[in-house]
Each structure stands twice: as C-alpha cells, then as structure tokens.
C-alpha cells in the first residue's frame, strides 16, 4: 500500500467524537443541523440533507422558528455563500480561491457538513499527492493473494463520494502535481471513474460534487490546466470587509492562541489591535481608511492570519521583554516584517506609508517613532 | 385599465420610474392600448416647440433637453432621455402618430430662476445635472428626512427596497413584467404612491415642498388646458410620485395661487447629445441609474436577455484574448438561473448575471470581470441630435466672450501679444486656453516663450476655421459655457490620464483659469502619485507642478492647494530615488559594457540624469526646506555604490554646485570614481555626468580646480590603449560640449600640470597649426615695435619659444 491517501473514516459517528481534539463540523454543529433539517420544508436536491436555502442559512446564521440560534459560520459577503451553494446545485464543481487566512477550508468543511452531513471525504493536496488519492489504490496483500477484485480495491475519498452521492473535498488543489490534478477531469466531466483492472466503473450518484480550495497568492504552485479550470465555478473569498469584523476576528483568535501557547497574561490592547488591522487594511486596499489618500500596496498578502501573528508576536515581546503592556514598539518590528517582504520595493512602500500617512495621524506619533527606529 | 382621474375619465395617468425599462415597456403598451389623442409628458413646457425634432431620424438617444438662462448659460438644467426612458417612448409614440405632445412640468423659466435664488451655483462648478430627479439638487439634504427624500427621488426604488430588492428594476420586473394577467400596472403603482406620499407628509415637510407643490400645480394647469381643448383620451406620463396628485383636479384657483409670483428668468431650450456615462449614477445622476447599459439591453433585447447578455460578455472577453467557450456561457447561464432560484427570484437579474460572469466566464478574476462590467453595464453610447437643432448655449457663450474680449474670429492668421498683467489680456489668454482644452484650436500658442521663468508675455496665432463650430457642438455635451465645459473636460481627462500628463493638466488648468477643476486634478495627482511605482513618472510629474505653484501668482491664482501635493510628490520622489537608482543599474554594474553609449542602459541613464536635473531645477522654485530635503536625498544617493556612472557623476556635480560637497570630499569621491578598480567606461560616464550638461559650466570647473583636472589627467594617462579607445567617444562627447575657449584653457591647464602627460596636450594648443612663413612678417613688425633697437629680423625657429 503506497497510497498516501488519508484513510476515509467513513462517517462522523465514530465513538470518540466527544473526546476528539477537534470535532468535525457535522459533529460540533449536529444540533443546529438537526434543527434546520426539521424546519426545512423547501425542496432538497437529490442527495442533499438540506435544501439550498437551509444550507445558506446554516452558513450565514439566523434564528429558526423553534428558537434555535444558528451561529454564523462565515462572516462576510452573503453573495459569496450564495454563489457557492448555487454552484453546488448546478452539479458544477466549486473552486474556492483566496489568500491564506480567508476561511476557504472552513467554508468548504461547513458546506460539506450541511449538504452531505459529512465533511470527512477529504483529499489533502501536497506536492507528494499521488493519483491513487484521487482514483483508487490497491490492498497489495489481497491483490497478490486473490488477484484483482473489488475487495482488493482501496477507494479514494472521491471514489467513495461518487459511489454514495456525497460531497468530496480537495484541499490545496494547486499544490498537487499537474498530472494528478488532471485525474479530476474525467471525474468532473464524465462523472464516472473507470476501474479498467476490474472492467467496471463507478458512476457518480446524484448528490456527488466536489469542493476544491486553492491559494492564489502562493509561490511554487501548479496552476490548473484550462481543461480542469473550466469544470469549476470559481469563487474568490475576499478579505474581511469591515474593520469591525476584522478586529473582532483578530482579537478573538489572539486570545485563543495566547491561551494555547500559554503566553503570560498580557491585556491585548484593543488600540494596538486596531492599529495593526488598520495598517493591514490600508496597505491591502491601497487607500487609507478615510478614503482620502491612496497608498501603494506591498507584495505580501497581509492576510488576517498575518495580523494575528503580528499581534501574538507583539504580546510575546511585551510579556517577556517589555513592561507587560502591548505597546507600539512591540508591534512595530512585526508589522514591518509582515509588510516588507521584498526589501527594495516593499521598503519604499513602507517608508512612503510611514511618511505620508502614519506621520500626520492623530495619536499615532508613538507608533511612527517606533517604526522609524525599526526601519533605520 | 390605466388610472382614471377621479373627476374625469378622459385622463389616464401613467406614473413611471424615470429611466426604467420596465416602465418604458409598460407605458408603450398602455399607449398602444389607449390610443390617446394627446400626450402630456413631465418636462419643461418651453420644449413644446422642439418636440418635432424627436421624429427626426438623425435624433438618436441618449439625448437631453437642455434649458439655460439667456443671461447666464452656466445656469442650466438637463432632462435626459435614453432609449429606455418611458418619457422618450411616450414622445416617440406621439410624434410618429401625429398626436399632440405637451410638456407639463414647471417651466424652466421658473426652475432656473428659482435655483439661482435658492442656492446660487458657484460659477466654476458644472451646471446641475438633474432637475430630472424629483428633488432637484439645488437644496442640499440638510434634514434627517433622507428616506422621505429618497421616496421623492425614486419612489419605486423605495418600494423595491421595502420588498427586499436591491435593484428597483428587478422588483419592477418581478412584480410588474412577469405577471401574466396583462393588466396595466399603473393603478396599483398610483395606489402605492398615495400611501408613500402620506408617509412622507407625516414625516414632516420636505426641503422642496413649495417647489413640488408648484410643479404639480403646473401639471394640473396644463392638464386642465388640454381638457378645455376638448381632447378625449389624454395620457399623462410623469414620475410615479406625482401620479396621485393628478388623479383629482382641485379648483383651478388654488393652483393658480401656487403658481403666482414665482421668480422668472428668460430661458432657452434645445436638444443636446447625451451619453450613457452621464446617465450613470457614477457621474452623480440624481435618479440613480446605476446600469444604463443593462437597462438598454433589457429594453432592446428581443428575448432571453440573460443569455444574450452573457453571450455578449463572452464575446467581449474573447476580444480581450481570454479563452471563453460556449460551454462557459452555458454554465454561466445555469449558475445565474440557480442563483436566482436560491434567492427566490423569477428570473436572473443584473446581480446574478454579474456573479455568474465573475465565477464562470472570468474564472474568479475580479479585474477581468470589472472590465466587462464597465463596458457593458454602463456602456459608452453617445447620442446624436439633428442639424436643425437650435444653437447651443456654448456657441452663444463664445460669441459673447469674443465680443467682450474684442477678439474677432477671422479666417486669416493673426498674431497677438498678451500681457498677463493686464486684466483683458489675462481673460483672453484664459479663453484661448479653455478652447484648446475643448479641442477648438482657434489660437496656437508659441510654446517656446511660455515656459520661460517669470514671463508675463504670451504670443498666440489666431485663425478661425469652420470646423471649430462642429468641435463646439461636441463640446456642448460637457457644459453650457466655455468655462464649465472646459472644466468638465478637464475632469474627464483627469480620470484617465497618467501621472505626467496629469500634472501637465494642472498647468493647463492654471493657464485656463479653471480653479474649480484644478482642485480635482490636484487630488487626482495625489491619488495617482500614491500608486505609481515608476519613479520616473513621479520625477517627470514634479517640475510642472512646481512651476504651476510658483507662477500661479502671475495668473492670480491661489496656489496653496498645489503646495501640499507638490510637497507630497517630492516626499515620494525622495523616498523612492535611492532604491530606484540602485535598481536601475544592472546587477553586474562593474562589468565592462560597451563604452559607445549607444546601449539601452546608457539611454536610460541619460534619461534619469534629465529627470534628476528637472527635479533639481524644480526644487529651486520651492522653499528652502524642500530644497535641502532634496539635497539630502541626493547626498544619500551619491554615496551609494552601484549607481549608474553617468547619474552618479551628475549627482556629485549637483551637490558640489549646491555647496553640499566640500572640495576635499569631492576629490576623494572623484578619486574613487576614477580609480583603476572602476571599469574605464564607468569612469568616463562618471566624468561626463560630472562635467556635462547644457550650460553646466563644467569646463570652467576643471580649469579652476586643478586638483580635479589632475585626477582626470592621471586617470586618462593611466589607461591602456584599448581602454583609451573605448572611452574616447564618451570623453569627446563630454568635452565637446564646452566652448572652444574653455577647451583651450583646459588644455593649457593640463599642460601646466607638468610631467609626461602635458606633452600630449601640446599639439592642440590654440587649435590651429602656425604657418611660420606667413607669420614671419607680422612677428617681425611686432618685434620691431617692442625693441626698435634690434636691427636684424628674428629667425623663424625662435617663433615657438617666443610664444
């Protein structure tokens, strides 16, 4: 057995679910899914556990008729979720694109949980992913002992999803080698997976579909061939839309991370978090928050995830070397490191930003000085 | 059937959404059914005489009715009509069937006079775009009654929002167009409006109540007149908001009272060509037509609008060399339809189509999708008006200006001199500059004189050509006066232009005295500068700005707004110069390159030197602080290694001239640049950069600074034969720029340096070989004068020593 395919733990009702370090979405939100299913009277596409409306609702949150509170799973544009769900309805595969930290995997997991009640049919794309992970492998002991037979065949998650009419997920599609990616073409266009050794084929059952995620800012990826690209509807996940959303995401994640990393207790100053998020958002958007001044954007992605790590790093600095309070000086170096990826061009971007925006801003003089110190 | 007037069933009120294709279709259907014998349309009654022109085949929408005050054409109002405007459909229906048409809104004579009293329009600002909006923008929204105002502006949009629709056309489509019973929607609309009006009234008085009352009074007045004339089936096409007000006719006396004592001005009305771009909300249109292209498509597409739209989008993408197949279109249609189902809509609309375009046709690429969006959703349809259309106000404005400024349009070429210190000449200069901006090249400036520092004089060649009238008509779509049209044109240009062009535009604004537009251009400069990563653009952009700032005073302009942006630009240049210079030099800058100077890098270096010189000169026009900031930057860059030789030499020279580089330090740097470790080509380029440049006086510097000359000399004499041949053209170019006396002086100095090398320069002394025989008599005479006692003539061999 050479296949590196993750073993498909076929369903979510494994005995140790409660004790799991990280339960699957369909386990963690089982109650919400059940309540939605109970209330949902709209037509369900074949093979779907919920109607498209209920899936949308599961992702965006709301309150049901019976008082069940559905927590929002995806904070962001409603449009994104609607296009994603509508795509799955049309039997076209869905490609979620976005910079790191834009909740691609999170969204795909919850979509699978809501549509099929199962988010575990997962293929993780890596440079070493082999074609067996997408098609099928063999149990070589049996193969040698019994010859090719259905019992000797080890189905891939996609094989299983096709046979059972469920959703399969492919993570980091562009990290897979191109020839492995192209194994998906037959699956997506013919909706069938032939097994020539046995002279049989698996025809996808109604309800089967595929959600892939890919990172569009990464280096060293294998771009999709246009033949494959054409089988997907592409949804680009945006970075958080509003300042408040992003500050909220950053501060809650920083808190969680601080706990799990067991950092000394530092009051994570909301001012500094807001400052980091402001800088990130302004540089990312190429325009200041008040919309008055344009700024250049650096080459880095400046995702929310990076903002989180800047703040976490700042807290570590403040706790171990500072006075225990998060100060501008603690985050200055981190911000500079995140912004200046390319020393020459990003350096100019950052200095221009400091001189034209930060310098004149009310209440930012400490931060400006700290950044100047780091820069020189 | 259509809503009957309560008092009179001869009246059929069709309350519409301005520029709503759904409304337009419904109006057309209602008119065909009603076969009215008179049509009343919301619009200025002054335009009644112009109705016939709508039947002209040369009249192509979008067009607009333009009303303007005769005494001040900059006070003007537009009533735009697109193909999909219900008013246009009603107009076309009537004129093609010889049905009388009356415009029934408040006369422009009142609205324009009113506007002047209520909110004087600043002269430099473009004319208000939209009396078409139910609440003209003369009065700003100073109260909280935003929703009530919105209801007046676009009541159907309010109904749509209430029903949970973001796009009013979608709502209209869903609730009106897709009903199968074929009943006229107008009674229901009127009923809904009645409720909305009550809500708005209970919310308190709106800012424009008096004006609204007057408008509706006038509509009723026209309606009464039509009834008196004995028409039997009168169709009234007006904004839905007004529909309830026309259903019942109160006493004529009350309306007459509302109309009494209104201010009045003398106005003219004509047709002008319009564009979809100006209909779009993006350019500030009050009634909120966000997607004229989409509306046009909805109105004109024969069937399957979504499919046709996506096919067109695919075609556009293919033109841009994007691989988009029919399979893409099929999938896009499917996605749009399933999105519509998911959202509970009977048919896919613009938002579904846009999302399908992004997700399928553009494979997620927002930038590509935006391209399609811009070109299709707004579109750049340009209307046309027939030749018989009355003269445009801009033509009258120009005639008036020509009379006032005593500049007669003549076909023969005539030169005039303008002294900008005189008011009349300043006005003339502004007018000519504005016309240039509008593409009317009546006057050709003599550019040569105009850039000179501190000049007050301008020379123009004037010649009027008949084509200019055509250009003026085209310019008419930008504004009603030369000034406002030029300002609008500048804004349009500013939206497109690249950075250097933009700063030139700043200068043009100043010359044309367009203070209003100048602010926007300057803001655009600032925005563009922030995102422009090419420092050469920034550097090229700075000098015109500096000039504009410095000489704005001559043209009596307060240039303080320029100050900030110049400052900002200089900051960006200072920050970016160092890295840019280092990046410009190729990685192996110490490698030998052809010394001929013909390579692309050499050209680039020459260009950079030019830019640096330009900025350097420009900082001379700015304050002391800016100057020293710039020199600091130069000093920093000069100290960098890896800067192109020519540029580095030039930087040192500039610093030296600005007394930023002491003699000793300079000698050290010069020594480094010409050291044996440097490739000869770079050293030669360095020297060229240092001494070169027009009027730089580099020659004199070498004459007087023997130490520098010594360094050059030592370097030159240390070169091998090959290397010497390589650098010779460069040096010749550098030294060739000096005046002959300078060259001679350098040669003499070099000789005086002593040592072997001096002998080499000897042969060029004086530049001319001496013909001893011809010189002999003259020398003899001179000697005789000097020493009359000497008897014998001097032998010729001693000639050399005597010199």
TrEMBL record, chain A:
Pfam families attached to this UniProt entry: AAA_5 (PF07728)
Leader peptide range in chain numbering: none
Region (Disordered) location: 1-21
Top-rank taxon, per record: Bacteria
GO molecular function: ATP binding; ATP hydrolysis activity
Gene3D superfamilies the UniProt entry points to: P-loop containing nucleotide triphosphate hydrolases
Comp. bias regions, Polar residues: 1-12
InterPro entries on file: ATPase_dyneun-rel_AAA (IPR011704), CbbQ/NirQ/NorQ/GpvN (IPR050764), P-loop_NTPase (IPR027417)
Domain annotation ATPase dynein-related AAA: ranges: 94-232
Record PANTHER family: MAGNESIUM-CHELATASE SUBUNIT CHLD, MOXR FAMILY PROTEIN
Name by which UniProt lists this protein: Dynein-related subfamily AAA family protein
Taxonomic classification: Bacteria, Bacillati, Actinomycetota, Actinomycetes, Streptosporangiales
From TrEMBL, chain B:
InterPro entries the UniProt entry points to: DUF5682 (IPR043737), LolB (IPR050458)
Stretches assigned to coiled coil: none
Record region (Disordered): 124-152, 751-773
Compositionally biased intervals (Acidic residues): 127-144
Name of the protein this chain belongs to: Uncharacterized protein
Species the sequence originates in: Allonocardiopsis opalescens
